[in-house]
Amino acid sequence: xxxxxxxxxxxxxxxxxxxxxxxxxxxxxxxxxxxxxxxxxxxxxxxxxxxxxxxxxxxxxxxxxxxxxxxxxxxxxxxxxxxxxxxxxxx
Length: 91
Fold this sequence. Notes:
91 residues, Translation Initiation Factor IF3
């Protein structure tokens, strides 16, 4: 079961500060923990940014899909490559 470790309501945060805060909060999560994101629109562009930068490290689950409030659980499914023990593919 996913454990929500943090919630960020980006509606109260300046647009330029949102993605850096979301990514730094996500990177601090342990595998199995999730960040709950609250927004006033579908954060699909953020999903594509996660997919580009963190492929295989996250799960994206809509908890509420508008029209006024969108909530997404972004779960850390595994640690970043090179974090912790080596997976053996480094050589």
